Automatic annotation (TrEMBL):
This is 7-cyano-7-deazaguanine synthase. It catalyses: 7-carboxy-7-carbaguanine + NH4(+) + 2 ATP = 7-cyano-7-carbaguanine + 2 AMP + 2 diphosphate + 2 H(+). It comes from Xanthobacter dioxanivorans. Belongs to the QueC family. GO terms for molecular function: ATP binding; ligase activity; metal ion binding. Keywords: ATP-binding, Ligase, Metal-binding, Nucleotide-binding, Queuosine biosynthesis, Zinc. It comes from the Bacteria. InterPro entries: QueC, Rossmann-like_a/b/a_fold. GO terms for biological process: tRNA queuosine(34) biosynthetic process. Pathway: Purine metabolism; 7-cyano-7-deazaguanine biosynthesis.
Amino acid sequence: MKGILLSGGMDSIALAYWKRPEVAFTVNYGQAAAEAEIAAAGQVASLLSIRQEIISVDCSSLGSGHMAGTDALDLAPAPEWWPFRNQLLLTLVGMRAVAIGVTELMVGSVASDEVHADGRLSFFNSIDCLMHMQEGGIRVTAPAIGLTTSALIKISGIPQSVLAWAHSCHIGNLACGVCRGCVKHYEVTSELTGDAY
């Protein structure tokens, strides 16, 4: 059985539409936009008849940057950086996934995520080995890691009306319009529609 980390952002929504896994995992780990992410992910999971599992573990005291509503650490590669976030999310999701028989966890990382060490192919290869060697033998894959967001969206065939449900803001449940997530959302939408940004 296949599962996906479905954050409710453009990349994970497009990947879910393309790959149609049986289970979608959405994690509230204390991020500022948790409510909107859960709602967006839930709409897509319902449309695609994918079982949605919501995992809530408050790690807000461990976060930093825009997603945690604090200043970024000095070593942060980008203002939204949350230390070891993908490792945390995969661990939390893996704990539930192994209990319900999921054998593959897909992550919606794309080429531009390489600004973060945990958004690179080398990270996903390493955590795949780590999780696969443990009980349950879960595999971790990032099917769109070599694609741009626009390319992923085109390959997925997701309609604009469904993609419009995506929540990309790092700062809150309403789009701020200025964070890197919002800017990426506007730029990708502009590229896909041909409108000037």
